[in-house]
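Q: My hope is that you can spare some time for a protein that puzzles me. Underneath my words sits a plain record pairing an amino acid chain with its backbone structure tokens. Those tokens are not coordinates but codes from a learned vocabulary of shapes. Thank you; the sequence and its tokens follow:
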Amino acid sequence: MVHRRFALLCALLLVGIASGPTPSPSPAPTRPPSLLRRLGNFFMAHGVHPAPRQRPTGPALPKSYPIHGSMIVRPNAVVRVSCGRGFVACYIHAIATSQSNARFEGVLWGPKAALVHLHVTGSPRSPHFWLGVDNRYASRADAHAYLRARLYLPLDASIDATGITGAYDVSGLRGSCIFNVASMELGIRGCSKVDAMTVAGGVTLQLLPGIWPDVRVRTESGSITLLLPRGFTGRVHARTLEGNLRNPFDTGFDEGRLILQSLSGNIEVRANP
């Protein structure tokens, strides 16, 4: 009996030893971290992180400000436009329409564009659109703001415009076009009367067929180009002191008054093909 119990105990011990956990293989030797890795760990541990890379971006677009104003006017109203006070560079296109109002629509941009305001004053017979900037912000070097706008006028209206720098472009008006500007470029197509005076701006004038306007253009250093309709047989009086003159229409009868004068600018008179 004793021998039987002893044999059973030995059998249980042998089974426990055989089913014990097998030893795990020893891990492979690891390499020490590289110098760059250790430097990165050091920066992370001490709160020193390199600045994240930023994707390159293009130039930021200037912020623009819409500007508009209107007034009901008479069909033959004389619309005054004053642009350039506070050194605003203005690029204005005056367009003749069949509407009975004068409407000004444009966009301003530049470092001081938010300080520019459009004022609409006057009466239906003589409305006045003028842009102004506080004199505290006026600069004697560069323009603080830039304007690109359209001025819609009745077909028989007239325009009387002043300005410092930029451009006026007038098309289709039957009234008179009067300009007294400094360095603005003038493009005029139509108008029954043209009286333009510039200092350094150039003038391009195109006469429409069947309309022989009263024209007087004077510049100091700006060039003058006069485009005549086909079949024109009148005379153009042109004179420049220091510039080049090309005027094949210096003889003939006067059909209206066509006078072009410049101190040092070039003058060219030619017929449209």
About this structure: The chain has a mean pLDDT of 82. The first strand starts at residue 64 and ends at 72. DSSP finds two helices and 17 strands in the chain. The two ends are 139 Å apart (CA to CA).
